Amino acid sequence: MEYDPTVRQKALAHIEEHGLAPTHHRIVGYVGRDKKVLDLGCATGYLAEALAGNGCSVTGLEMDAAAAEKAREHCVAIVVGDAGDPTVIKKAGTDFDVIICADILEHLVDPWTVMKTLRGMLKPDGVILASIPNVAYWRMRWDLVLGRFNYTDTGLLDMTHLRFFTVNTFRKAAEETGFKVSDMIINDAGLPGFKHPRDWDRLPGILKKLAKQWPNFCVFHAIYVLAPDRAPLLTSP
Q1: Are 54 and 79 in contact, with CB atoms under 8 Å apart?
Q2: What's the predicted TM-score (pTM) here?
Q3: What are phi and psi of 207, to 5 degrees?
């Protein structure tokens, strides 16, 4: 797959100017201290830097060679290559405590095969942290009612998204690839009346309750904690 190095420039510039987003801080907080971590699609190593500050040993995998070179400063090892290619992914090694898939699976042609590959690279008690947007968010449904499906630079219809998941279908994808969703950490949510989805920590209590009750409608973006299920794999789509 040919990579356009300009794809993530806006996001990286925003992080450089404003620092890590709440999503990133939640991932770093969940990982904790002194873990062996694989960061799939590590970009310039902004997550690796925060994780290394907590004593974690981070291996980064990145397609953009220039970004990977910047990430080396914060990683114990770097693999340069396509995160959608299982042969490349396996070069990162095994026995990881945590594998981070921060907003990357929806950009891959075959995330199901990637998830199966990653499953074999975890320690028995290891987890994947996968942050994923929810295409069934209420505003997306309303846009479809109005006949709108317009790609954008960022957001649900990011023009580089190749796969679209709802809360329900990502749970199903996890089950099909040998995982259980042990937790879902909501990053942003909202209901009609909220012009934009809000960070979880800024939501009123009643909306938090509704988001947990109707996640497929209310949740815009979430982190899924995937724990390996040792039962036989289901047939992939």
Answers
A1: no
A2: 0.90
A3: -70, -35
Q: Tokens 């959608």 identify what position?
A: 84
pLDDT at residue 236, rounded to an integer: 36
Say whether 96 sits in a helix, a strand or coil. Answer: strand
SS3 content of the chain, % helix, strand, coil (to 5): 40, 25, 35
Paired tokens of 207: 């909306």
Q: What is the pLDDT of residues 28-38, one digit of tens each?
A: 999 999 999 99
94/62 Cα distance (integer angstroms): 17
Tokens of 25: 């801080």
What does the alpha-carbon distance between residue 24 and residue 11 come to, in Å, rounded to a whole number? Answer: 13
Checking DSSP bridges between strand 36-40 and strand 219-228, what pairing results, if any? unpaired
Q: Which among 155, 118, 108 is positioned nearest to 38, based on CA atoms?
A: 118
Structure tokens at 88: 């490349």
Please name the helix (run of DSSP H) or strand (run of DSSP E) that holds residue 131, with its range, or none: strand 122-133
